[in-house]
Write a structure and sequence with these properties.
- It is a single chain.
- The protein is 56% helix and 2% strand.
- It is an all-alpha fold.
- It has 2 domains: 76 residues, Orthogonal Bundle (Arc Repressor Mutant, subunit A), CATH 1.10.10; 93 residues, no CATH class.
- A two-stranded antiparallel sheet has the order 1-2.
- The radius of gyration is 17 Å and the shape is globular.
- The chain starts with a helix and ends in a 5-residue tail after the last helix.
- The relative contact order is 0.14.
């Protein structure tokens, strides 16, 4: 049964962390996961450290090496735990997190370039957080894997109607503009409408 929006918001904090860690498309850092769940890094680190027997938490918050150590723990969370973390719930949680991060962190001149003639690749700043990087590159893949992607049409429209060029600027900063076409084609075939 697909997760309802109220289910996602009522999910305890640890389950939300585990859902995002389990279904993330890239290996995350503590900083990236904290940004996606909207919490500070120390709280995320403290919660995940409770599970240090099954989750590797790197010492450096920016090191993308946060991972589940034992496949049997993944199997348990997906198939046997009292509160299972389904793929649909994991992807919906990540899709909503990506859209929230982009809504909050995409803005005019996110690269902080002094001139529109200056290359974005030379001006990468702390304004492109690990969570924003993940969100800009992975949002559509999570949206495409939820039960009813059109449920996110309003959120997608709110992000991209006013922030589309800012999203492209982040892709430029990351040297990933070539991925924009693929992302937009998948979005056009997945969601009900694009701005």
């Amino acid at each position: 049964m697909p997760a309802k929006q109220s289910d996602v918001h009522a999910m305890p904090a640890m389950l939300q962390l585990l859902a995002q860690l389990l279904w993330a498309r890239d290996i995350l850092s503590v900083a990236a996961l904290a940004g996606l769940v909207g919490e500070n890094k120390d709280n995320v680190r403290a919660r995940l450290s409770l599970l240090n027997a099954v989750i590797h938490v790197p010492d450096d918050d920016d090191e993308p090496n946060l991972r589940i150590l034992h496949i049997s723990f993944c199997d348990y969370l997906i198939e046997r735990a009292p509160i299972r973390i389904s793929a649909s719930l994991g992807h919906e949680t990540l899709a909503r997190a990506c859209l929230r991060v982009m809504a909050e962190q995409l803005y005019f001149n996110v690269s902080q370039s002094r001139s529109s003639y200056e290359s974005n690749l030379t001006t990468r700043t702390a304004t492109v957080t690990p969570a924003l990087e993940y969100a800009c590159l992975q949002w559509i893949y999570h949206v495409a894997l939820i039960s009813v992607p059109s449920e996110l049409d309003v959120e997608i429209d709110a992000v991209f109607r006013s922030r589309f060029l800012f999203w492209l600027e982040v892709l430029s900063i990351l040297g990933q503009v070539s991925r924009a076409t693929k992302i937009l084609l998948l979005a056009a075939s997945t969601v009900g409408r694009l701005p």
